[in-house]
Amino acid sequence: MLIDFIEPWVAVDSERASFEEEFRCELSPDNVLSGYNVQVIGRRVDCDDVLFEVRDEKANFKLALVHLTWSGKVEAKRWPMTKVFADEEAFIKQMTLDTQDYNL
User: Fold this and answer.
1) What is the per-residue pLDDT across 34-49, written as a single tens digit (0 to 9) for each?
2) 17 falls in which pLDDT band (50, 70, 90)?
3) Which domain of life is it from (predicted)?
């Protein structure tokens, strides 16, 4: 999946393993992403929001924005806060709003 990230979002390559490890530590069985194969593809530079590509055909969404807590432990159902997107177009709308807020 290729998304042209705009500020404050950036692509993630070299840091991918650390974000995915923390996600696995925090993920509770009640989280919407529990049981899905995901991979980090982007992050916001101004907060702890990370974008995951959902790589399971059975999912009815393709992307998930996750706000990591960096607690290193399983979180309650509400955390890590997660918002899913049906497709790239839906996330791009969110990213555009993020850019407007970031540039204020």
Assistant:
1) 999 999 999 999 999 9
2) very high
3) Bacteria
Rounded-to-integer distance, Cα 67 and Cα 46, Å: 12
In a domain, 13, yes or no: yes
Phi, psi of 20 (to 5 degrees): -70, -35
81 located within any domain: yes
Asked if 3 and 41 count as a contact pair (C-beta separation under 8 A), the reply is yes
Number of domains in the chain: 1
What does pTM read for this prediction? 0.94
Cα separations (Å) of 94 from 51, 59, 63, 90, 100?
11, 20, 12, 7, 10
Query: Would residue 28 count as lying in a domain?
Result: yes
Q: At 104, is the pLDDT very low, low, confident or very high (cuts 50, 70, 90)?
A: low
Q: How many CB atoms lie within 10 A of CB 5?
A: 19
DSSP state of 12: -
User: What residues make up the domain containing 25?
Assistant: 9-102
